[in-house]
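Data availability (excerpt). All sequences and predicted token strings are deposited with the supplementary files. A representative entry, Transcriptional regulator, Crp/Fnr family, is shown inline so that the format can be inspected without opening the archive.
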Amino acid sequence: MTSERFYDALRQSSTLQATLNRYLYVLMGQLGQLVACTRFHVVEARLARWLLMTQDRAHSDHFHVTHEFLAFMLGVRRVGVTKAAGVLQQHKLIHYSRGNITVLDRAGLLAAACGCYGAAEALYDQMIPSPGLMAAPANRHG
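Structure token line:
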């Protein structure tokens, strides 16, 4: 779709406008949450949060991710990832070897994660209901 056609559709559809406004609200909220998390939470808690989010999306206890990628995602040097992963592994929450991560104790990882885990998802669920919820008669006018 060209930008001109998209702009025309946007002008003609209040539903599309409202949906995009909600999406932008969620995106800005997630960005603010990420900035605050990076500034105020220790690397171990941020790594635990990131691993939980990855596990949620991968639908698996096992995934491959490099120190370099984790350092980029967490905004730290690789040595910071090494130390943080070592702490989580020492507490038997994860097993980490050559980029292969296994979540051993999800409940423990939840306890180790900062309070930011789930905040982005909660905001998304609040502002952008799933299609199944939108189709439900009780939610059509609410």
